Amino acid sequence: ALREAWRLGEAAPVELLAQYAESRQRETRGPATYSLGRPRATDAANVLLRATEDDDALIRGWAVRTLDAMYADSAHINRNAVAARVEQLVVDRDPHVRIYAVRSLSTFDAARYATLIAERAGDPDPNVRVEALAAMGQFEGPDIADALTRQLSGGIFATRREALLSLATVQGTASLPFVQEWVGSGQWRERFVAVQALGNLGIAGVPTLRTLATDPDARVAAAALGSLFRIDPSGADTLVARYWNHHDVGVRAAVFRHVKR
């Protein structure tokens, strides 16, 4: 019942849940903390802050994933105070806690925490690395761009994907040479990521997106069309007739969504 209490919305018994969240029994603390964090109950901010020091990693994770900058503002708590608590969990012993901490910390002052989050790009856990690389797309500066560029070679697909997407956001058109390498890949999933990266470049990505709209893999073609319709809807109208009767339903769906709008 405690774990599902958040489903009550505004009718959820926040005060009662806060009491249970500080129980000595983990079986009680955990579900109560979850139900306080899921709806982002601002009246329980102090309880969630204390929960970040819980012995149980699940409880620490449920607490820290709630404690982002928007929550601090809604709860009328000093951002720096909340960020300082979250910052401690970026190096938590549990990888799931580190993932949530990186995600929350990235919502605070980017310049202040960029270096700390960038360090997590070398975390032993691949999921933490992915989260850090995704967060780095919010930062600026040559050091961030260099760190992202280094992640493009070697490593698992997920880290290389997030590095490219973030690099496109950080560097803009300067990232095109790196994106083009993925455009020419023999793997459809890398060309698909190239479409996503080009979508972050605005009009500068349109010529290459038009090429990818003819990709032999329908998943890539559909994604390219979707980006073209979003970035340059008037210029992409000429593509409607060409792809209206495409053999793949995914490509046709991209066209139909554009026409519907």
Describe this structure in words.
With 261 residues, this protein is mostly helical. The protein contains 18 helices and no strands. The two termini are 43 Å apart.
Mean pLDDT: 93
Distance between the termini: 43 Å
Helix content: 55-70%
Quaternary state reads single chain
Rg from C-alpha positions?
22 Å
Count of separate DSSP helical elements: 18
Topology as a string of helices (H) and strands (E): HHHHHHHHHHHHHHHHHH
Choose one word for the global shape. globular
Summarize the biggest pleated sheet.
Answer: none
In short:
With 261 residues, the chain is mainly alpha-helical. The chain has helices at 14-20, 26-37, 45-51, 57-64, 69-74, 79-89, 95-105, 110-119, 126-135, 142-150, 157-171, 176-183, 188-199, 206-212, 218-231, 233-236, 238-243, 249-260. Helix 2 (26-37) packs parallel to helix 4 (57-64) and helix 12 runs antiparallel to helix 13 (188-199).
How is the secondary structure organized here?
Elements: H1 14-20, H2 26-37, H3 45-51, H4 57-64, H5 69-74, H6 79-89, H7 95-105, H8 110-119, H9 126-135, H10 142-150, H11 157-171, H12 176-183, H13 188-199, H14 206-212, H15 218-231, H16 233-236, H17 238-243, H18 249-260
Helix pairs in contact: 1-2, 2-4, 4-7, 6-7, 7-9, 9-11, 10-11, 11-13, 12-13, 13-14, 13-15, 14-15, 15-18
